[in-house]
TrEMBL record:
Transmembrane segments: 41-58, 65-85, 105-122, 131-149, 169-186, 207-224, 230-246, 253-270, 337-358, 379-400, 412-433
Keywords from the UniProt entry: Cell cycle, Cell division, Cell shape, Membrane, Transmembrane, Transmembrane helix
Protein name (record): Cell division protein FtsW
GO cellular component, one term: cell division site
GO annotation, biological process: cell division; regulation of cell shape
Native source species: Streptomyces formicae
Length: 465
């Protein structure tokens, strides 16, 4: 009965999410052309079918999973389709570019299908712990693959091009790397929690245990140097440090990790032109409008300045869906800088609403980690939630000027097939862990009820009560 109630809650929330997405699509069409989009009925049907398929799969394979995870992921994905449909006419007029919303819908269908397949075939997440070294090898291959393929995008090597096809291996690596970190840390957490000498009031770890963090630090630097991918490097190293802290409960690991990240970023920023250009755009965003001979050397992009202009013009309530000019940022307005579209047209209120959706999704993942009594499952759920949180923070901080822009895509919202499929696989893994934690909780409740009934039947006094 408890599983049925959870799925009823999920169905209601999914229906609300579909309604919000369809109304948003209709609103964008009215704002752009004064009439409803011609394909509105087909779009609504596609959203209903996707939501129904995902809900039925969860109901069949993970009935005790958290009822909020799927609706939150679906709503964020639907908002992506609305924003891209709104941006397509502007980009077609300014850049003569092909529509992105149709391709994004296709990738959404593939992503949901991949998530359903994972729910079907991965019935027990503990099986993943056996494949520690497989996950490590796959993660290393995905992280380093772009360095061995020609071509880059805006100075960074994130893509692998295979004929007419291309994908971002780093998006899939964030899932496999969490599996590897969880499987690696669980049997070693007691040794890594041992303390060494005390320096400046901080108890440092034993020197012999610095090997894992040094290896991950070195690999993140290699990604930064050879692929010039600041976002993946930060995400990769950051999630390891946080998972290490969760496993050991030692603040000293966090301090050491921050210090190592600062040293590495400073060294690479001083020697790598692409990274240096990102830092200059962060420190001096408006210097791009100075005469060329007065600009800081290496400052070549106005995206940071255009993003700040967009946020400023949006204010608190926004200019209205379809009434802004996010296309001025360039092609990144549909991918890396799509949050600027939200801030300009929906204002601070709309942007905070989107960020709260991410926050709630992360909170449900962390709640799953707390409810899980298996150490591997606890670290896996926490790692998946935190890799999502870190990526959202890195992207948001970059486009708002809190830190240098990294080029990472905003999960679910930004254009991109690799990102969409990887994030839905992440959600599917969270559902599997959540289901098994919920099923164990239900089993304990049933056992307690049976024990009470057995005791009551054996005692006449209790039976009368």
């Amino acid at each position: 009965m408890r599983g049925l109630n959870l799925r009823r809650t999920e169905a209601v929330l999914l229906a609300l999410a579909v309604a919000v997405v369809v109304l948003g699509h209709a609103s964008a069409g009215l704002a752009l052309s004064g009439e409803l989009p011609g394909q509105l009925a087909g779009f609504a049907a596609s959203q209903v079918c996707l939501a129904a398929a995902a809900h039925l799969a969860v109901r069949r394979y993970t009935p005790y999973a958290d009822p909020l995870v799927l609706p939150l992921a679906f709503l964020l994905t639907g908002l992506s389709l609305v924003l891209l449909a709104r941006l397509d006419p502007a980009y077609a007029a300014r850049y003569d570019s092909a529509p992105a919303s149709t391709g994004q819908l296709v990738w959404t269908v593939l992503a949901v299908a991949a998530a359903i397949l994972l729910l079907r075939f991965l019935r027990n997440y503990r099986r993943l712990q056996r494949y520690l070294y497989v996950a490590m090898a796959v993660s290393l291959a995905l992280l380093m693959a772009p360095a061995f393929f020609p071509g880059d995008t805006y100075g960074a090597k994130r893509w692998v091009y295979l004929g007419p096809f291309s994908f971002q291996p780093g998006e899939f690596a964030k899932v496999t790397i969490v599996i590897f970190f969880a499987a690696f840390l669980v049997p070693r957490r007691d040794a890594l929690a041992l303390t060494g000498r005390r320096v400046l009031g901080l108890t440092l770890p034993h020197g012999r245990h610095f090997g894992p963090i040094a290896a991950v630090w070195l690999l993140s630097l290699l990604v930064l140097v050879f692929e010039r991918d600041l976002g993946t490097s930060l995400l990769f190293f950051g999630v390891f440090i946080v998972m290490l802290y969760i496993a050991t409960e030692r603040t000293s690991w966090v301090v050491c990790g921050i210090a190592m990240a600062a040293v590495g970023a400073t060294a690479v920023g001083a020697t790598e032109p692409h990274v240096r250009g990102r830092i200059l755009a962060w420190l001096h965003p408006f210097d791009i409008y100075l005469p060329p001979d007065q600009r800081p050397p290496g400052l070549v992009s106005d995206q940071a300045a255009q993003a700040l202009f967009g946020f400023g013009s949006g204010g608190v309530t926004g200019t209205g869906l379809g009434q802004g000019h996010p296309e001025l940022i360039g092609f990144a307005g549909r991918s890396d800088f799509i949050l600027t579209t939200v801030g300009e047209e929906l204002g601070l209120a709309g942007m905070m609403a989107v960020l709260l959706l991410y926050t709630l999704l992360v909170q449900r993942g962390l709640r799953t980690a707390i409810a899980c009594d298996n150490p591997f499952g606890k670290l896996l759920a926490a790692g998946l939630s935190l890799v999502l949180a870190l990526q959202v923070f890195i992207v948001t901080a970059g486009v708002t000027g809190l830190m240098p822009f990294t080029g990472k895509a905003l999960p679910f919202l930004a254009q991109g097939g690799s990102s969409m499929v990887a994030n839905w696989l992440l959600v599917s893994l969270l559902l599997v862990v959540s289901h098994q934690a919920g099923a164990k909780h239900r089993a304990r409740e049933d056992q307690f009820r049976d024990d009470v009934q057995e005791t009551a039947s054996a005692s006449p006094e209790l039976s009368r009560i």
